[in-house]
Amino acid sequence: MNQNLQNVLGLQVALTQLREAEQRLHGIPDWMRELHDEHERRKTEIQTLEGASEEATRQRRTAEAAVQDAQEKLKKFQQQINRVSTQREYGALLQEIDTVKGQISGQEEAAFSSLERFEQTQKDLAALRESFREIEQRYAAELARWEAEKPEVARQVEELRARIADLKGRLPRGVLSQFERIHDRYPSSATAPVRPIERPGKGQREWHCVACNYRVRPQSVVEIRNGSSLVQCDACKRILYLEEEQG
Ligand SMILES: [Zn+2]
Q1: Centre of ligand 1 from the C-alpha of residue 196, in Å
Q2: Residue 203: its pLDDT value, please?
Q3: Alpha carbon distances (Å) from 240 to 88, 151, 184, 192
Q4: Around ion ligand 1, which residues have CB less than 5 A away?
Q5: Residue 219: Cβ-neighbour burial (10 angstroms; 0-12, 13-18, 19+)
Q6: Contacts of 242 (CB under 8 A, 6+ apart)
Q7: Does this model's pTM top 0.85?
Q8: Which residues contact 20 (CB under 8 A, 6 or more apart)?
Q9: Residue 239 DSSP symbol
Q10: CA distance between the termini of the chain
Q11: pLDDT for 247
Q12: What is the predicted pLDDT for the residue at 148?
């Protein structure tokens, strides 16, 4: 096989491996994903409940302050009773006193139900934290295992970077920029295998690009096998190769 094509294929393999290694290094590893999600879910649940608990306390304080205000008002109204001179004034004052008493009992009820809500959330929180403990321990253990794997992955990343630099150095500048252009467009792979389509009853074999399914001309297959330049798919422009000759 043409040496440039061989180096291009090696470069693509190394770039793919580098991307995977970097994901392993910086992302959550697959084997931890499920526990990580569970851990996040529990954490969010606890935070939501903590928020509800704080909110209940805030509401209770607001209601208690309102009770106090209303009681002050009630005291003033009651002092005014001795000073009223007409029946109309007396009636109006009694009305005011009734209203403010209603406010007091309403706010007292609100304070009480906030307190109940607070106590319930505290009970739920205790249970959640208790059941979270086991997951937290497992999570800490897996995190430690992940940290222990990192130096090896980091070493692989260095090795792959060196291999990529070496392969790039072997490619003529034009071929390298051709590859890089296509790789920018298709970060997952700038290369694509060519496969024959078996059509019983037809004499001539037909070939297609595995990436986009477009037909590949027989002359192109000959060119990939024997030629000296890279052959691109007519449709998707990826660099084509024959699988049996890879590597
Ligand atoms: Zn194609």
Answers
A1: 14
A2: 66
A3: 101, 36, 16, 5
A4: 209, 211-212, 214, 233, 235-236
A5: exposed
A6: 193, 194, 221, 224, 225
A7: no
A8: none
A9: E
A10: 10
A11: 44
A12: 93
Backbone phi and psi for residue 229, each to the nearest 5 degrees, phi listed first: -110, 165
User: Which residue is associated with the tokens 């607070």?
Assistant: 118
Per-residue tokens: 173: 């500048």
112: which 2 tokens? 């009480």
The span from the CA of 173 to the CA of 177, in Å, is 6
Tell me how far CA of residue 133 lies from CA of 39, 50, 147, in angstroms.
10, 16, 21
Spatial neighbors of 146 by CB under 8 A, at least 6 apart, are: 29, 32
187-210 mean pLDDT: 86
Using N-to-C axis directions, what is the helix angle for 87-170 and 30-80, rounded to 10°? 160
Higher-confidence residue of 1 and 121: namely 121
Q: Report how far ligand 1's centroid is from the alpha carbon of 208 (Å).
A: 8
Dist CA 71 CA 104 (whole Å): 7
**Ligand 1 centre distance from Cα of residue 199 (Å):** 20
Check if the beta carbon of residue 224 is closer than 8 Å to that of residue 194: yes
CA of 185 to the centre of ligand 1 (A): 13
Strand partners, 242: 194
How is residue 204 annotated by DSSP? S
Instruction: Report d(CA 34, CA 28) in Å as an integer.
Output: 10
Give 102-124 as a DSSP string: HHHHHHHHHHHHHHHHHHHHHHH
Which amino acid is present at 179? F
Distance from Cα 51 to the centre of ligand 1, integer Å: 54
Long-range contact pairs involving 39-43 (C-beta distance under 8 Å, separation at least 24): 39/135, 39/136, 39/139, 42/128, 42/131, 42/132, 42/135, 43/132
d(CA 191, CA 210): 10
Q: Which residues contact 243 (CB under 8 A, 6 or more apart)?
A: 193, 194, 195
